[in-house]
Design brief:
Blueprint: H1 2-22, H2 33-43, H3 49-76, H4 96-119, H5 128-139, H6 147-153, H7 158-172, H8 175-192, H9 195-204, H10 211-221, H11 227-233, H12 241-256
């Protein structure tokens, strides 16, 4: 049975790779951010047109963030466009995690945030992973656009502490929420350039082999060599999620850079 499972897995990988090759979706080894966007566009070639239409806004947003107008125009030429009446622009989403965390911190300090998260009480009855991640990101020095965030960044060791709280909660939570908490812990560890904590958290997520984690790990190690292959291996004739995760990963690298940079 074990051998049969291995053979089936290898066959599935080969089928996906072959499908990509048949559609011309073959990436080179260009690991620049622009090269990775082009690779994602090649991987999207295996998708049905309606799914490529829905993927177009994300693809163009990532191209713009990485390469500006020139790359966006180039990628736009590869992606089919929906009729104008079907196009929507939802704009950026509010950071609800930070809103909840900030209110608790301003009323009772960082301890109030952690206490509410552990107890799943008040505004953290739901979304405690997002709130702790938002606070941890600011404690790590990112998103310092208000006084509360800057106060967190000034506290030595706070980002590490919040990372450990996320792991602690992931170990004791029920399965689905445990994955959510581990996901937040992995992202915070990637922001903190903490490979050991990242690898620990990744194994606790619901999908440790997901492409997003390959990109996050590349930020820590500085090694992007496997990213084109990861994008192509995740290409599918039906599922857009691997490509969306790759785009998110590219934007993550564009926003935060490499730890060895």
């Amino acid at each position: 049975m074990f051998k049969t499972a291995i053979v089936a897995t290898l066959a599935a990988i080969l089928a996906v790779t072959f499908a990509g090759a048949q559609s011309g979706a073959v990436c080179g080894q260009d690991t620049t951010l622009s090269g990775l966007v082009r690779c994602a566009a090649e991987a999207a070639a295996v998708l049905p047109e309606d799914k490529r239409v829905r993927l177009r806004p994300d693809m163009l947003r990532t191209a713009q963030s990485v390469g500006g107008d020139a790359l966006e125009t180039e990628i736009a030429g590869r992606m089919p466009q929906a009729p104008a009446k079907q196009q929507t622009d939802t704009g950026p989403y509010p950071d609800y995690g930070w809103q909840a965390a900030k209110d608790l911190i301003e009323s009772g300090g960082i301890e109030a945030l952690m206490e509410a998260a552990r107890a799943k009480s008040g505004p953290l009855r739901y979304g405690r992973a997002e709130a702790l991640l938002a606070a941890g990101q600011r404690a790590a020095g990112f998103g310092l656009d208000d006084g509360t965030a800057r106060q967190l960044a000034a506290q030595d060791g706070l980002a590490w502490r919040l990372n450990q709280v996320l792991l602690e909660m992931a170990r004791s939570a029920e399965a689905f929420e445990a994955g959510d908490l581990a996901h937040a812990a992995a992202r915070l560890a990637a922001l903190r350039c903490d490979l050991k904590t990242f690898d620990t958290a990744r194994t606790m997520t619901l999908a440790p082999d997901a492409i997003r984690y390959t990109f996050w790990r590349a930020r820590i190690t500085g090694d992007r060599a496997g990213l084109p292959t990861a994008i192509m291996t995740g290409a599918s004739s039906e599922d857009t999620r691997p490509i969306r995760q790759a785009l998110d990963g590219i934007e993550f690298l564009a926003e935060f850079g490499a730890c060895d940079g």
